[in-house]
Amino acid sequence: IEGAEIQGATGKSGAFYGRVGALAGQATGATIANCIVRDSVLSSPASAVGGLIGYQSTTKSTYRECTVENVAITGYQHCGAFAGYYPSEQEFDRCVENQVTISGTKS
To answer: How many CB atoms lie within 10 A of CB 7?
Structure first.
């Protein structure tokens, strides 16, 4: 995915399935470059909520020069500015997050 710009998005999932992201619910071995997500709200009562990608598989992806700005992210667990859940090493190159609020409800 390259050059996507998303503004004012609202992403939600149902009660049992998370994997919410402004660009994609799941990524496997992807290159995500020069993408911007701003002024958005992403939420799920389940897991894996991210500003760009909800669930990043174990196959390494590259995030290059991406921005997540003024975004609210809420989920049960595994929430993050770029990817909600990533179980292994991923590559982040010159990515920026600004004014991102992240909250999880797992106690």
So the answer is: 12
